[in-house]
Specification:
Helix content is 38%, strand content 28%. The chain has 158 residues and is an alpha+beta fold.
Length: 158
């Protein structure tokens, strides 16, 4: 079980009912990873979602003619790997630890069962997860716009 004190520092859970945080702690498995550990791969299924307790994780996509391209970094306190919560199928990115990481690993099916059993918890989980998705999409959009700007301003380097 994850220590409740450790989850108190997780931004994703901040303000959530202590009872829900306790249940998440009971459901979580602790995982320590060295830098360079692949947590999941783009195009493959993953039954877990992660809360990054310590460290950082790079999200990467496989781009045609470019190979692996880093797109975003997930830091301590954030949710990682939200696709299984929406039952979207394969992962849309590869997640690789940039540093040594401490992770709370949650079985997505178990979390969804908790959400279905308690609609108030389910709505809060959905709201928080949607906020993560919106932030990541915005960051990706801004990064894409910056890359386009650089390509227009400096075509010789692209």
């Amino acid at each position: 079980m994850i220590l409740l004190d450790e989850l108190a520092d997780v931004e994703f859970l901040r303000g959530l009912s202590p009872e829900y945080v306790r249940r998440i702690a009971q459901a979580a498995q602790l995982e320590e990873c060295l830098a360079g550990t692949v947590l999941f791969r783009e195009g493959q299924g993953c039954p877990f979602v992660y809360l990054v307790l310590r460290g950082s994780v790079m999200l990467e996509v496989n781009a045609p003619a470019q190979g692996t391209v880093p797109v975003q970094t997930v830091e301590a306190g954030e949710l990682l790997g939200w696709s299984p919560l929406f039952r979207l199928g394969p992962m849309t990115v590869t997640a690789c630890t940039r540093t040594r990481c401490r992770l709370a690993v949650l079985d997505a099916a178990r979390l969804l069962a908790m959400a279905e059993h308690e609609p108030r918890f389910g709505m809060e989980l959905l709201r928080r997860t949607a906020t993560v998705v919106a932030r990541r999409l915005r960051a990706a959009r801004l990064a894409g716009a910056e890359n386009l700007r650089e390509a227009v301003l400096h075509p010789e380097s692209h």
